[in-house]
Amino acid sequence: MYNVIEPAFLIDDLPGVGPKTKERLNSIQIFNANDVVFKIPNSYMSHIPVNLNLVEIEETITAQGTVKTEPSVTYMRRGMNRLVFFMEANDIYLKVTFFNQPYLRDKIKVNQTVKVHGKFNKLKQEMSGKKLILGSKEDMEIRYALNKAMHNRTFKNLVSETFKHAQFKYDIPTELREKYHLMPISDALYLLHFPQSFKDVSRARRTLKFYELFMYQVKIMEKRRAERVRDANSIVPYDIDKLKAFIQTLPFELTNDQKTSVNSICRDLLSEYSMHRLLQGDVGSGKTIVAGICVYAAKTARVQSALMVPTEVLANQHFESLSETFSGELNLALLTGSTTKKEKCEILNQLKNGNMDLIIGTHALIEDDVVFKNLGFIITDEQHRFGVNQREKLNEKARHKNVLYMTATPIPRTLSITTFGDMDVSIIKTMPAGRKSIETTWRRSNELSEVMSFIRSEHNRGHSIYVVAPLIEESETLDLITVNEIYELFLREFGSEEVVLVHGKMKNDEKVKAMDTFETLKKRILVSTTVIEVGINVPNATVMVIFNAERFGLSTLHQLRGRVGRSDKQSYCILISDPKTEQAAERMNIMTETTDGFILSERDLEMRGPGDFFGVRQSGLPEFKAADLAEDYKMLEIARDEAIQLFKR
Ligand code: ADP
Ligand code: MG
């Protein structure tokens, strides 16, 4: 990822690196000079001597003192040997032992000042030495994560050789270095390998962080420029009058954010540059409607659209909700793994002859036999769940590469800058009018009877209730109530005519059937372990009960809560949890304090770190050596602004 040295000579060009060493280095992904200098130590220890009188009983520390006796080496069994000498430190006369380091004998001289790092036992006045430090130099000890490929010391020599031979060619632009008080990247890297103090390390890290973030942004800008090619084929010349007339027929007024989003997307459609836009908004904020309107726009130009979603349930739900609003205006169909052969054949025909305006489906859409007459607008929902390859494959089918990515996971700004920095972003922040904010409460499991009576009262008012239960069959641990226990509990309270169970191990058609009884309000209490069905939409539901809520991160809890509050009725989210950690308790508190998905996602990122945020490797998050996306967001924003400036010039 990084190139600062040019020519980036190979490691075997360094003195002393033969085929064996080369192989070992390759095994830890080190191939050339750049890899060496960017192999940043993973820990630093200082050898600042401590006052032995202050050591409690036994501690690993560094002592500084005067050698009092000649070292003597005793050979023990099986190649073991022991070197012993006495030294005086802080008025304590102590015995120092080094195991298997007989070569130290020649270095230790009586009356010399030395530092010994090791385990000090105060009662016995003994020290088991690990490292001997002569004079005042090398106060910092560094360690590399070398995975046993070679000794720390050997690698350090290699780093030293590399710096001797390297010519540093790339750096942060001088004016930025001056503006932000950074050092040349070569100095920063050198200090990280050969620091004199912790201060060196932190100064150098700051420069490296900036370098990483800035270079990454520059890369993104380059990608953006390369992708956004001018191509008359990207133009979708829709009929604005028809579009306006159509929007008038909608049963509601679009929110301002929806209008702005429609405008931006339509502007992209008309533009000769291809669209790469991310549409973000909480569940229920009206993204699907926005996408549908733009599909209608494309249709007026006889351009086809495709909507790809990660799960079949989500595909069904999108199909139903879009059919409801657009059935008279758009010819649309659903294509998933469950589509029958006959239906599929018909759909494929209509896609090929151009009759079909919109196809909604899972990755079934990327199969080779799906051929479009004139695909020009691609929408992917919950896009970070698709691998890059899947996305590209659908994009390849398009004549006009206009892609809209939709996500209901509010992505913290820092992550959206890094992962989606090459896209334009539209955000729907305000919910459609009339929505009441969801009241969230946190209850302990011993308050279950209160919770049940609350549920009963909402049920009596004709509302539907979601109950999320942990997926386990029997109590593997004592802390979790099993899904079956919860199901039984609700059966006893409400009877089997009112309660339906959906769990992750059910077959797909059973699941769909069970969901259906809940969606059509035949049964109004859904006990479920499957929380992934982001698409489910039952506006009649007013209560979301989550058992063992501490199992989930903030983003997931927020997603779950988004199932309710989809009508003008007041809705509630009840978290049942006896958290064991402070962090988990804090999550419960945060949930009761805010319903703003963006605030929650920032907090989630802070608490869990970027690696866990998406939960999937394919998120495409870069791996930084020094920068931390949760911590360094201010620097990230600066780096981004500077990269944009650079590209403007
Ligand atoms: P999302 O895709 O963001 O989850 P949807 O587009 O599915 O949201 O909208 C959720 C619900 O809100 C749908 O029933 C939709 O018809 C309705 N809706 C969308 N926009 C508005 C609006 N501006 N005013 C009232 N209701 C709306
Ligand atoms: Mg949606």
What would you say about this model in short?
Belongs to the helicase family. RecG subfamily. The protein has 649 residues and is an alpha/beta fold.
Keywords, please?
19% strand; OB fold (Dihydrolipoamide Acetyltransferase, E2P); 21 helices; binds magnesium ion; single chain; 21 strands; Rossmann fold; binds adenosine-5'-diphosphate; alpha/beta; 38% helix; 4 domains; 649 residues; seven-stranded parallel sheet
What does this structure look like?
This protein is an alpha/beta fold and 649 residues long. The chain has four domains: 48-134, OB fold (Dihydrolipoamide Acetyltransferase, E2P); 171-217 and 619-643, no CATH class; 232-428, Rossmann fold (3-Layer(aba) Sandwich), CATH 3.40.50; 439-594, 3-Layer(aba) Sandwich (Rossmann fold). The chain is 38% helix and 19% strand. The chain has 21 helices and 21 strands. The strands form four sheets. The chain has a seven-stranded parallel beta sheet, sandwiched between helices. Strands 16-21-20-17-19-18 form a six-stranded parallel beta sheet, sandwiched between helices. A five-stranded mixed beta barrel has the order 2-4-5-7-6. Strand 6 (113-121) and strand 7 form a beta hairpin. The longest helix is centred in the N-terminal third of the chain and has 30 residues, at 198-227. It is globular, with a radius of gyration of 32 Å. The two termini are 24 Å apart.
